[in-house]
Amino acid sequence: MEVLLRNRAALHTLPATGLYPHQWSWDSAFTAIGLRHVSPRRAQQELESLLGAQWADGRLPQIVFDRQRDEDYSPGAAFWRSEEIPGSPAVPTAGLVQPPVHARAALAVHRADEAESRRRGFLERAHPRLLAWHGYLRTRRDRGGRGLASIVHPWESGMDNSPAWDGPLSRVPDVRAGGPGVPRPDLRHADPSERPSNAEYGRYLHLAARYRDHRCDDADAGHEFVCEDPAFNALWADAELAMAEVAAALGGDRAPHEARARELTAALEPLFSPALGTYAARDVRTGELQRVATVAGLLPLLLPHLPRAAELLATLRGPRFRLGTAVMVPSHDLTAAGFDRARYWRGPSWSSTTWLLVQALRGRGAVAEARALGAQLRRSALQHGFAEYVDPIDGTPHGTRAFTWTAALALDLELDPELG
């Protein structure tokens, strides 16, 4: 709670002071999941703050900017110039999105104090915005034509620097070529060995600038990066299951959401790689699966009707991810040549993906493993000052400290009667 209070800013919570001075989309969802135990109203406000920045087309933005802190993060509001793009909200935001975990968070927050939720009309007001968000993914992001949402930037995966994006990024120009250096205010708060390289950041900025300059048009045929991410789509399917519960709570029909979740689960199947034992990202422009095993390919375990659950559990328990012996769950295959124990999303373990796999294991009936994994997360959080991410081999903390979602998810597990 000290971390959550320290990082509070108006009606939302910063991921961390210093390194992340704005509001991030899926961070706020995870934050609300922890906050609901101690202040359901504040958890509602966390989500309402983000939902209030929704675009007219239904997208929930990756970042809602604080203009007073614009020099502390790049690219900021001055880069995005969202006010110049039709359909953007009154507040400055990025044009990109992040994984759709918001319906699951809204349902959890509602259930934490249903009387307070009904008194404030929380679910009634959130419901149409969540519908519009899912509708945006369905109608504007199916670039592959197979029913899955495509991401148009690595940042949209939430796992920015994952090795899964190395192949698709290889054809993206580096914005540094013939131009100024890449602004890196993040390096004032974290060691360069733990962060994406300047070359990677240069490509990130090129993609963001192109998307901005095309007025955040999801139909831009020339956009260089278009990928189907298994984690993004699995979380969307799980969000549809949550929306079924939301609809039922409001006296509506749950069946359309349950059907959509089944459709998304089936649509994931072409992303399964038998050689990896996980689902893998697909480059929509080339049709190729990326031959990289990452934690993103394990997150479909959340889905109850998944036909590959046995294979995923075997991979999670096997040498690639070493459930039970690794510290939490590595973000990248421990046996891969490119595994990096310290660098952002290229090996370290994160509390967000670990927490999601705790829920997946519980849903599979593996409660003892879920409890043990949750205990690892809580021990690591307390031992290392709620680090952003940790070395999966020896637990060394990396990134910033007092990281909000680490605190929020540790709090959630501590107060979970089955897992705490």
Automatic annotation (TrEMBL):
Give the span(s) annotated as Disordered.
175-198
Q: By its UniProt entry, which InterPro entries does this protein fall under?
A: 6-hairpin_glycosidase_sf, 6hp_glycosidase-like_sf, Glycoside_hydrolase_63, MGH1-like_GH
- Coiled-coil stretches: none
What are the recorded GO MF terms, alphabetically? hydrolase activity, acting on glycosyl bonds
Q: Where are the transmembrane segments?
A: none
In this record, what's one Pfam family? MGH1-like_GH
Domain of life per record: Bacteria
Here the segments flagged for biased composition (Basic and acidic residues) are 185-194
The record's keywords, sorted A to Z, are: Glycosidase, Hydrolase
UniProt-listed SUPFAM superfamilies? Six-hairpin glycosidases
Limits of the Mannosylglycerate hydrolase MGH1-like glycoside hydrolase domain: 20-406
Give the similarity note.
Belongs to the glycosyl hydrolase 63 family.
Q: What is this protein called?
A: Trehalase family glycosidase
